[in-house]
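Objective 1b: paired records.
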Amino acid sequence: MPRSAPPTPSPARAEGRPVATWRRVARIGVGVALTLLGLLWVLQGADLVRIEPVGCVAECEPVTGGSPAWLTIGVIALLGGLFLLGAPRLLGAGRRR
């Protein structure tokens, strides 16, 4: 039985660059957006950043003072975004041969 030739790698893989798939692009986009929003919410929850309300329907006033709820939500979003950005390297390291 003749041995078949090994498959030729794609040009992107041959140069050592990973192939950009739609899942990877989406994961990076969501990870960056979630990280930036989480950072903003942490800063607002810690009362380090104050932003005036943009779209008000009634009498809107800026929120003053820190908010433990937004600080917690911001930390969770920030960690989730960082996980999305770093998870492929952490989880994919064991799969490589």
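Objective 1b, second protein:
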Amino acid sequence: MPVLFEFSGDFYIVTPSLSAAEHYAQQHCELTLGNVHSTLPPDQVEWIFSCHPIKEVGKGSPCEELITDQG
């Protein structure tokens, strides 16, 4: 039974240009799946999932103000 789990989100990257931000996202931003689990008994399920998803970097847009995480 093929199953697709899709995660999406945003990276806010401070760079001099959009092309630099896209390059930084491609080269330096990643996600690794931590744990694949099921509530089925172990003898009823077996899975083959890559822990490294396919990355797609969309077109970004410049921010008008710097967003910082200074809580």
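The CA atoms of residues 39 and 51 lie 19 Å apart. The mean pLDDT is 77.
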